[in-house]
Design brief:
There is one protein chain. With 418 residues, this protein is an alpha/beta fold. 44% of the residues lie in helices and 14% in strands. The chain has 15 helices and twelve strands. The chain has a six-stranded parallel beta sheet, sandwiched between helices. The chain has a six-stranded parallel beta sheet with strand order 9-8-7-10-11-12, with helices on both faces. α9 (232-241) packs parallel to α10 (260-270). The longest helix is centred in the first third of the chain and has 24 residues, at 96-119. The two termini are 25 Å apart. Residues 407-418 have low confidence and may be disordered.
């Protein structure tokens, strides 16, 4: 069975979880995987080692080829093309910014639809519910190919255009958390919605819970893009409150983003610049090494002004797999991973005092922190192992393929629709 994976851009430094899944799925017997992208990659200056083998294999159209594909469909299936475009415009009419992006994506989707039909893909799976899922839906409308998508965070919390339609015409939807599953169902998803975790490979993270040596300052690690919903400003304010153990801690911020200058300035105003290091984006092996030398991992997630928020941060899965005592917030699907006082500690989102108290409690009682870390590792092995996720997806893909063979259901690519 040939599965076409669709992503917005490739490679993306922070989206190694997608590559892990593709690697795991492609290793399943009977599955052939191809990787497709909508837009050129951003100039991030680094390609993660795990992504490098896929870079020369990514299928993405040049602008002229995308426009030509619209003409190709207009000549062969004009009514279908017109109805599909009209649905996209109507579905995005109340979201002008998203409408512009959707219209720019439409020719790209037309190219992928034509190419999918030519290459004979059996099923399309999109990562993210906004433009990749829109492209999969357009391909479905033009060719009949079945599709599914994985819903993460920003793609459903901040992008609502056509969400119910995409989540109803899909063969199935993979939600990374029970929270996302319920969110999609409440917003009109009629396709089956399954919880399929974005997992990690626990074997890649030897379990250890290092304690600070005598006189050594504790190290608090946060791995996340420097964006509003990641809450690094709350973390800096928490550290500035300086309860006894946290007052000695050094904070390592791994990740980059539009808020870097603002956060560096905030650290200066709070008088903690000497206790905070901004590392920028780092390759996966370097992040794994930092996990081994950190004493607390923190994900201070909040809800952004536009409603955006985390799903279940993969960095938290990596921290728990590695045995690093973890602290996060009661938000979205996070409590499904960081279970308060069982696998970690939780604070209320946006509350620096509560976050400081959770960090201080973790540092103050290393024995309890180690017990929670061990329970966290067991939970990751049980529910967040990428091999289990790949097995679940492979089963759903196979079911989608069987449904496509049933008379009266949508056919695979190559079975053109009127």
């Amino acid at each position: 069975m040939k599965i076409a994976y669709l992503v917005s851009r490739f490679p993306v430094v922070s989206e190694t979880f997608v590559v892990r899944e593709i690697d795991a799925v492609s290793a399943r017997p009977g599955l052939e995987v191809e990787l497709r992208a909508l837009y050129p990659p951003k100039a991030e200056g680094m390609v993660q080692p795990i992504s490098a083998p896929w870079v020369p294999r990514v299928l993405r159209p040049a602008p002229a080829a995308a426009l030509a594909a619209v003409g190709w469909w207009a000549a062969r299936r004009p009514l279908r093309l017109a109805r599909t475009l009209a649905t996209v415009v109507a579905g995005h009419a109340r979201h002008p910014h998203e409408l512009v992006r959707a219209l720019a994506t439409f020719p790209v989707a037309a190219w992928h639809a034509r190419d999918l039909q030519a290459t004979g893909a059996d099923h399309v799976h999109a990562h993210f519910a906004h433009y990749p899922a829109l492209t999969a839906w357009i391909a479905h409308e033009l060719t009949g190919v079945s599709y599914s998508f994985t819903a993460h965070a920003n793609d459903i919390f901040a992008h609502h255009a056509m969400l119910a339609r995409k989540a109803s015409d899909a063969r199935f939807v993979a939600a990374i958390s029970a929270y996302n599953r319920d969110y999609l169902r409440a917003r009109g998803a009629r396709a089956p919605v399954y919880v399929v975790r974005c997992g990690v490979d626990p074997a890649a993270y030897p379990f250890a819970t290092p304690a600070p040596a005598n006189g050594e300052p504790p190290r608090v690690l946060c791995v996340a893009g420097l964006r509003e919903y990641k809450g690094q400003d709350v973390l800096l304010r928490a550290v500035a409150q300086a309860p006894p153990r946290l007052a000695r801690a050094h904070v390592d911020l791994v990740g980059d983003g539009e808020l870097r200058a603002e956060l560096e300035a905030l650290a200066g105003r709070l008088g903690i610049s000497d206790r905070v290091t901004f590392h920028g984006s780092l390759p996966v092996p370097a992040v794994a090494a930092m996990l081994r030398s950190s004493h607390v991992f923190v994900a201070p997630s909040v809800v952004a002004a536009d409603g955006d928020m985390d799903g279940v941060p993969v960095a938290l899965m990596e921290a728990l797999a590695a045995g690093v005592p973890s602290v996060s917030t009661r938000l979205s699907g996070i409590p499904e991973l960081v279970q308060h006082e069982r696998t970690g500690l939780l604070a209320e989102p946006g509350d620096p005092a509560a976050l400081a108290a959770a960090l201080e409690a973790t540092l103050a009682d290393p024995d309890a922190a180690r017990e929670r870390a061990a329970a966290g590792r067991a939970l990751v092995e049980r529910e967040f192992d990428q091999r289990r996720s790949a097995e679940a997806l492979a089963a759903h893909f196979a079911a989608a393929g069987r449904a496509a063979d049933v008379p009266g259901t949508d056919g695979a690519a190559g079975g053109a629709r009127s």
